[in-house]
Design brief:
By secondary structure, the chain is mainly alpha-helical. Helices cover about 65% and strands about 5% of the residues. The strands form two sheets. It has a three-stranded antiparallel sheet, sandwiched between helices. A hairpin with a 2-residue loop joins β4 (about 340-345) and β5. α5 packs antiparallel against α6 (about 115-125), α5 (about 90-110) packs parallel to α9 and α8 (about 180-195) packs antiparallel against α9 (about 205-215). Bound molecules: adenosine-5'-triphosphate (ATP) and magnesium ion.
Length: about 350
């Protein structure tokens, strides 16, 4: 057995007194407040699709970065807008991640809950292979630097399946959660999912997608816009340490406080970001009205905010004009300095410079 002796992971729920300490409840109240504010601000953006596009890509990029999959923002947007662009494997993974989030979101909207099978499909989309739940023993979590085994998840497929079905019940059913605030449960569920570690790979990213789906299913936000990955990247070693200490010393408190802080900080940062996008959109509308009144429509300006890279096809599709007119719109927007064109392969794409700079931050 040796290092393969798996940790014996308890099914949910943990002892309520462990997850509802005074400190935790106080912090949960603060995090709830921040997230309620974010929800409110997000609803003031006229085009929810625009908001989603902008924020989801940043998350796909950040979350992949936890796994050291690095792609540049430029390359990512080019991959999404230009057909002929050669996609690097890294960028492909980030694009997959975005699709995996959207898949989860659609399933949740359609069904109102998530099944274990949905989780398997999300992970499959993410990693692009259908190995599914681990069935061969040997998966252990090691310290990146020292190579030392820090945690051995359950190895037996039946046990993994049992734990997953226990997990998904608590994920979906509020009544089982005994009035403990949902944000506290987000931390509990995330710990549990990562500790079950049901897949050979992609557990971290799948778990981060489940976090966002949990927020939506509890009506804390409406669309997938609150992502903890950038906080996790910045605090990666504390993230691992706190996860570990739940297993080693049953220290739920510090883990939950860590996750609540992640939620609070991220909600504040996302709110600011959304505010900046909204201000920039309004400013650009005024600017185009004034400097290119002949081509101005609100729709056109909103379109160039849907993603920072636009092209003639998008304008034709969305505004319903001929290619010639679409091309003229984009050229004029370039002339007044709102867009900047760039050749990718044989295609020309137009970058919304200020939006791009904002999203890059
Ligand atoms: N001691 C631990 N106990 C439970 N889970 C852990 C522990 N250490 C790390 N993890 C989880 O394992 C994840 C990594 O697993 P895996 O490589 O399968 O996922 P990934 O998506 O490929 O990676 P990453 O999360 O680094 O992007 C981490 O993100 C973390 O959530
Ligand atoms: Mg991995």
């Amino acid at each position: 057995m040796g290092q393969f002796a798996p940790h014996s992971l308890s099914p949910l729920p943990p002892d309520q007194s462990k997850i509802e300490t005074v400190k935790i409840l106080k912090k949960a109240a603060k995090a709830s407040f921040a997230i309620a504010e974010l929800k409110g601000i997000a609803e003031t953006i006229p085009s929810q699709q625009m908001l989603l596009n902008a924020i989801i890509l940043k998350e796909a990029k950040d979350s992949s970065e936890v796994e050291n999959i690095i792609t540049s923002t430029d390359e990512l947007y080019e991959a999404l807008s230009a057909k002929e662009h050669k996609i690097s494997p890294e960028t492909k993974e980030v694009v997959n991640y975005r699709q995996a989030i959207m898949l989860g979101f659609q399933l949740l909207q359609k069904q109102g809950f998530i099944r274990v099978n949905d989780i398997i499909n999300i992970q499959n989309k993410l990693i692009n292979n259908d190995a599914g739940i681990r069935s061969t023993p040997g998966t252990v979590l090691k310290n990146d630097k020292t190579g030392e085994v820090v945690y051995t998840p359950p190895q037996d497929k039946l046990e993994i399946e049992h734990l997953l079905s226990n997990f998904i019940q608590y994920f979906n059913n509020e009544e089982l959660r005994d009035d403990t605030p949902a944000l506290i449960w987000l931390a509990v569920l995330h710990f549990q999912f990562e500790s079950i570690h049901p897949f050979y790979d992609g557990n971290g990213r799948t778990g981060r997608i489940l976090n966002i789906l949990f927020l939506i299913s509890n009506n804390l936000i409406k669309i997938p816009i609150l992502y903890l990955s950038s906080y996790i990247i910045k605090n990666k070693s504390s993230y691992y340490k706190h996860l570990n200490q739940v297993n080693e010393t049953n220290d739920w408190e510090n883990w939950i406080l860590f996750m609540l802080d992640a939620i609070e900080q991220t909600a504040i940062a996302t709110k600011d970001q959304i505010n900046s996008i909204r201000l920039l959109l309004e400013k650009t509308i005024e600017y185009v009205k004034l400097n290119a009144p002949k081509i101005y429509t609100r729709e056109l300006v909103e379109l160039i905010f849907e993603q920072p890279y636009s092209k003639i096809d998008f304008v034709v599709e969305r505004i319903g004009v001929e290619r010639k007119a679409a091309s003229r719109y984009l050229r004029e927007l370039e002339e007044i300095g709102v867009l900047k064109s760039k050749k990718v392969g044989r295609e020309k794409i137009y970058i919304n410079l200020e939006l791009f700079a904002l999203l890059k931050q």
